[in-house]
Queue: 4 jobs
Job 1
Amino acid sequence: MPEAAKAPAGASSSANLIEAVLAFDFGLKRIGIASGDTLTATAAPRPAALVTRTGPAWRTIERAVAELKPRRLIVGAPYNVDGTPGALAPAARRFADELERRFKLPVSMVDERWSSLEAGTALKARRAGGGRRRIRREDVDSVAAAVILERWLGGESGEDLK
């Protein structure tokens, strides 16, 4: 793999390096996870992390970070249709802050409006095209994380935490 390639518009301006990236679709029951990179500018869903009364399943997230060694993390920012912060915005921001604290990686928040709807539509189309199993909520969450990551890779720079 070459060491340098032109990064997409959403990638940090500090480098033309290929970056592995992890994205998260924050929720109160599950956190969808997706991985991708700035070379291919594509994203793939990964197994979701459960959220319990004590918080996210950090071990699941830690495994994904250890395995992929991302250079950046992306978190979906929940906005309402009118552009105002959604009800989950403060919790998603706390989650993003905790990611940054735990992993010492840059974190960006990207508008997640309609990502779950887009994910559900894509999964239904895949099932209609021959997919055999039913669509699980955790599948929707992780495909939504892939949608969020593809938005960032496509140039939606979002808001950097620092």
Job 2
Amino acid sequence: MKNFFNISSGEGRKNDFKRLAAAWHNKGISLASLGRYEEAIACFDKAIEIYPRHAGAWYKKGISLHSLGRHDEAISCCDKSLEIDPRCTEAWSVKGISLASLGRYEEAIGCYDKAIEIDQRDANAWYNKALAEEKAGRPQEAAKSYHKFIELAPLQYV
């Protein structure tokens, strides 16, 4: 039987495990897109078990947890992702979304600000920041953030 993962030793073996972790991660993304969040979480957990420094698997697990209303767990996953890659704008945004869902709007705004600091053209971060600013009773700032979103919005939004 052919060894599809070509498990070897040394650096080659490390790359094989990264590829296997990526496959579990990608399966999790597919399942999450179908709304099968518990199954997606199991896939992300498998990816993390194989390659614990997989920042994407951590924050994608956070997205699925958020979708299930498990916001504190989602925030913890995003924190883990950010320990690995502090410049991961997606993890900052997902953390912000979960914080906002808990009514922690000022903390959420701080997360969106981090994402924007890393990538000023992140339209979604501007939009989510505007929503949180509205909820925090900061309509003037929200208007500015909405303006920035509209300026940056991809064509699919207009």
Job 3
Amino acid sequence: MKKYKIGVSVAVALLVVVFVVVVSLNRGSATYPSIGYVTMSVRVDALVENMHLVDTDMHELIPSDGIIFPESRVTIYEGDSVFDVLQRELRDARVHMSFSTLPGFDLVLVDAINNIAPLAIAPMSGWQYRVNAENPLVGASQYILSDGDVIEWRFTLDFDDEW
């Protein structure tokens, strides 16, 4: 009988741990109510158009249509930033993304999406975003989203180029 009680206790404890982890990873909880939807896409058209600049080892990372994450309607939660949505949606779609934080500046830099990294192609290349066809003057981790926003991420060969 003691083995049965210990087994049940361990099972209950494991279920509690799993529940806590799932809730903490899922922003759609009572703490973070859904406030609507945004549209998001991630593209690498500049690379598709300039494959001659891309190392042949990277060719397999670049979709021929330029689409890494298709334009999709996604749920947002209270307080979501552009970066929060990018991170959550790419994780759910199983698309690799890495980032760095700048301590003291509350700033997040996208290092790579789909293993395509800034500076890997050209000195001024990298990932940039815009919301509602405008280039925000804040980082993606600082731009708080509203219902109906349209987020576009793209890999650029030159940050000085107009989008």
Job 4
Amino acid sequence: MLTWPSQSAMTAISTPQNGTEERSEEVVPGYRTCAVFDVTQTEGKPMASIGKFQGDPRHYGEKLSAYALSLGIRLEYSEAIRPVHGISEGGKITLLPDLSSPEHAAVLAHELAHEILHHQPRRAATSKTIRETEAEAVAFVVCQAVGLETGSVAQDYIQLHRGDAKLLLESLNYIRLVAGRILDGILENQTLLEVRAA
């Protein structure tokens, strides 16, 4: 059982000695209860869950960090940004300190895409939907290239920010250029076949 605070309005009607009716309203604090259940008490297909990053980024997490630093972008870690996993602030990326290794690489790739794509004059011509769709698509390409399993993370994130296939097609050139630039910066003359074989 779960309880939560609630408020009720009560109207009091009184008739003083002069015979006129008076109304007064008072807010009365209280609590309501409701039944809750555990997922083990349910039947049927499991509920959909938001995708998670899996796999071993190997040394590419460190290479992404080194690449960011080579571009003059500071990397910082802070709990204060929670609930988001990362923030790009034009010359500085802040990440949560407790990200798993695959999450760290994926979130850093996403924030690097913001740094490269969206901290320039073009930003004024884009919406948050465009910026988040482009950054997540870049992160998806980078993660796939270095062997991270992304499941439905990119799709979930893009849909959360109201991105769609039309927007992805319109932004494809930007996505391709930035994903290529990041991969060039971290692969050091390796081909994608060599990366996947390693």
